[in-house]
Fold this protein.
Amino acid sequence: MAIDPLRMHDVPSEAGVATARAAGPSVVRRAEPVTGHAPGGGLPLMVLLTIPSLVTAWGLPYYVLSLAQRLRHPLHPVLKSSGPLGLAFGALALTMFLFMWAYPFRKQARWLAWTGPVGRWLDVHIVMGLSLPVIAAVHAGWRFEGLIGLGMLAMVIVSLSGIIGRYLYTHIPRNRAGLELSLEESGAERRVLLTELAVETGLTPQELERSLGLDLRPQAGSGIHRTFARLLTDDLARWRTLRRLRREWSRSPRAQTLQDGARLGRALRLARRELALSQQVRLLDATRKVFGWWHVAHRPFAMTALLAVVIHVVVAVWVGGVRFTLPGPPR
């Protein structure tokens, strides 16, 4: 008979929970996985979007003109692609674009673990990917023709698809280093979570499973649309369950320790992780499959954007639109 790894580490024993309660919560603490990890970098993203937006608002009278009319506008020497401000945005966009390609290399090179976990690299990758089209647009003077238009279109598609990729990434159980957890590791993590939650709430693991309404039956996806629909349904169900648990635990005579707001908050965070991990493992095969399809679709647009950017930079330097001058000898 096949052994389901979800059930191997499903419910911790009463004796184990009792021992943990007697010894104190520190016995069952461990490093948290990145299950349900929220994307970081909100402030850097806001800054990287605000600066080009302010420049665009300031230069709007210039950007709405035709190319011939721009030549006579007083802001043209500053905002044109080879001008001081336009060139500064171009250099920033190129630097960010090239740095984004360091993320795939970091995923493969484990010896670069000292540079930070893969999850944080992904946060930086996403922040740059979302802000890059706006920064590049200011450099291009909000005119997209020919090769520049092709590169910008590919860049926008890559940025939008990156949001989808990040969503799928967070629905695959991982540890803090960003490495994917196996089914056995996920089952062991669920057992630790239930034990911690039992210590915090004073409820038995069986009562917690019933209260959380966990459904551990593996579900195979039936295509991209059905898988996304199920993921979104699970996210909504988790939000509703946590709202219900907040009401129930704050009033339950069985969970008197949760009358303290700080302890209730810790219990709800544990419950959120347990629910997220259970849902992720249940749809793991389907999510992996869709994530693989996403990689196949994402890569050609990323390569197209890279090729367009490289050609654009080479042509700009070749025809003299960008000049590199060395300081002369002092007189």
In short: The radius of gyration is 26 Å. Residues 66 and 291 are 43 Å apart (CA to CA). The chain has a mean pLDDT of 79.
